Amino acid sequence: MARGRKGKYETCVKARFDEIRRWCESGATDKEIIELLGISTSAFYDYKDKHGEFAELLKSARRVPVREIKAALYRRATGFQYVDEQEIEENGVVI
Fold first, then answer.
1. Is 77 exposed, middle or buried (0-12, 13-18, 19+ CB in 10 A)?
2. Which of 43, 84, 4, 25 has its CA nearest to residue 14?
3. Furthest-apart CA atoms within the chain: distance in Å
4. Cβ pair 44, 33 in contact under 8 A
5. What is the 3-state secondary structure (H, E, C) of 28-86?
6. How confident is the model at residue 58 (pLDDT cuts 50, 70, 90)?
7. Distances from the Cα of 62 to the Cαs of 4, 46, 88, in angstroms?
8. Rounded to whole angstroms, what are the CA distances from 20 to 23, 67, 69?
9. Do 51 and 15 form a contact (C-beta atoms < 8 A)?
10. Taking the complete model, does pTM exceed 0.85, yes or no?
11. DSSP 8-state assignment for residue 89
12. Rounded to whole angstroms, how far apart are CA atoms 8 and 43?
């Protein structure tokens, strides 16, 4: 069993899985995640290849925005329309 200092994967990536999930769910690209983590592009893709848990996190977290985008595109393509009704209050009176 190896001893010593933890690698950058353990400290910079694995320890921040919750943050990475939120970033992916909000639509962050690989490039943006790389910058937020402060690691090199080659390290990011190396971690993705070597650590299945990291690759699965990225894949599963990106399913939510992809599904929402597909639904929005479908609605737009089929002519979905809606009326946005908001109550606006001016000087205590609803307009």
1. exposed
2. 43
3. 72
4. yes
5. CCHHHHHHHHCCCHHHHHHHHHHCHHHHHHHHHHCHHHHHHHHHHHHHHHCCCCCCCCC
6. very high
7. 34, 19, 36
8. 5, 18, 20
9. no
10. no
11. E
12. 9
